[in-house]
Write a structure and sequence with these properties.
Blueprint (H helix, E strand, L loop, with lengths): L5 E6 L19 E6 L11 H10 E9 L5 E7 L2 H22 L1
Antiparallel strand pairs: 1-2, 3-4
Length: 103
C-alpha cells in the first residue's frame, strides 16, 4: 500500500448531466485533482493488506455475530497508547501531504 504518495494534476473538466466529461471551455477555472490513498480497514478477513493495517493498531476479536453488510461483528480497542499515537501521526502525515500538494 502506498500511503505516502499523492498524485496532483491540474485539469479542466466539468461532469455533465449524464456523467460525461465535457470539453474544456475558455474562462473555466482550473481545478487541482488530488489522489492519495489512506489506510484500508475495509475487509480484514479477506484482504491481507487490511489485516496487516488493522493488526498494526488494534486488538480486534470477532464476536461470532454477523453485522451490517454481512460483515462479522468485532470487539476490541487500541493495541496500546503507542499504537494510537502512531495511527494519529500517520493520518496527520497524509493530510499534511495533501496540503503540500495543494500549495
Amino acid at each position: 500500500m502506498a500511503s505516502h504518495v499523492c498524485v496532483a494534476a491540474p485539469c479542466h473538466f466539468i461532469v455533465g448531466y449524464d456523467n460525461q466529461i465535457e470539453p474544456f471551455e475558455e474562462g473555466r477555472t482550473p481545478i487541482l485533482m488530488l489522489s492519495a490513498s489512506g489506510i484500508d480497514f475495509a475487509n480484514p478477513t479477506t484482504s491481507k493488506t487490511s489485516e496487516r493495517e488493522e493488526n498494526r493498531y488494534f486488538n480486534v476479536q470477532p464476536t461470532g455475530e454477523v453485522g451490517e453488510h454481512n460483515k462479522p461483528k468485532v470487539t476490541g480497542g487500541w493495541k496500546s497508547a503507542e499504537a494510537k499515537h502512531a495511527f494519529k501521526e500517520r493520518i496527520k502525515s497524509t493530510y499534511e501531504l495533501l496540503f503540500r500538494c495543494c500549495q
